[in-house]
User: Fold Large ribosomal subunit protein mL53 from Kluyveromyces lactis.
Amino acid sequence: MITKYFTKAVVKFNPLGKEAKTARLFLSAIPPSQRTSGLQLQNEVLVSGSNKKPTVKVTFKDKTELEADPSSMNFMELGNYFDRHSRKLALKESIESQ
Assistant:
């Protein structure tokens, strides 16, 4: 997963729900160096009776926000979902640097 262009990530999940594996893998895919250098990372653990739904929300450097439901996707699908926009930003960055 391309995390270079993330500026903010918000993860909400129930640790006992089926979304827990996907949410935890997403959190572990963010490199420690990026966590300390400027990525705002927020996570919220939901209880079983919570009205809030599990979400993974990412804000990119171009202020685009994408949100996904980790209970309906596996980690590969979630990574591909966010990578689509990251690839667009990488292409734009490479064109501008030439």
